[in-house]
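Progress note, sequence design subtask.
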């Protein structure tokens, strides 16, 4: 994306738009407001992406994106304060406080899987599935998602347990590459 690669930008927009919409819903924005804020977030990302630096474990793209999102929501609320039906003051603060803090491990405050991370994970899996054979994907799915043993899956698919583990490893590695800093 730093080099202006169109497909990289499209991939980022495809992966992170649902996440930003989720944050908008958590901030109790309307559909139209969510579209405006999402557009503002991506405009800011495009203008300042060259300044993003991953420094240390707490410096994540998702955290940076969330910071931009919160800033755009504040700007949006301030910019619409004089419009009829707008909300401000305590109500606006409560809306902003509904946006969860960044949690790099992909869990919400209750230790449950964070829905925004689940959505992102699902989109990544859809995106990369075509890169792997059906047999490798099936081996991955049965072990990583269904939780079955490598030997059980190997017996079912006519593979060796090592081949099953290798397929799982390759797909998980590719998933991590695509998701970046989300664990």
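Output:
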């Amino acid at each position: 994306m730093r080099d202006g690669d169109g497909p990289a930008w499209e991939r980022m927009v495809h992966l992170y738009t649902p996440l930003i919409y989720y944050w908008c819903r958590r901030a109790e924005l309307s559909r139209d407001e969510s579209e405006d804020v999402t557009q503002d977030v991506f405009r800011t990302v495009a203008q300042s992406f060259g300044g993003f630096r991953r420094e240390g474990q707490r410096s994540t793209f998702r955290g940076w994106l969330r910071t931009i999102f919160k800033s755009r929501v504040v700007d949006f609320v301030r910019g619409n304060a004089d419009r009829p039906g707008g909300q401000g003051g305590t109500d606006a603060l409560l809306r902003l406080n509904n946006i969860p803090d960044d949690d790099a491990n992909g869990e919400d405050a209750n230790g449950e899987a964070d829905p925004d991370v689940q959505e992102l994970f699902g989109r990544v899996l859809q995106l990369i599935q075509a890169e792997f054979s059906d047999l490798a994907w099936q081996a991955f799915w049965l072990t990583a998602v269904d939780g079955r043993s490598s030997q059980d899956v190997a017996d079912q698919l006519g593979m060796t347990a090592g081949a099953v583990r290798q397929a799982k490893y390759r797909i998980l590695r590719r998933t991590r590459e695509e998701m970046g800093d989300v664990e």
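Confidence is low (pLDDT under 50) at residues 102-111. Work on this subtask will continue into the next period as scheduled.
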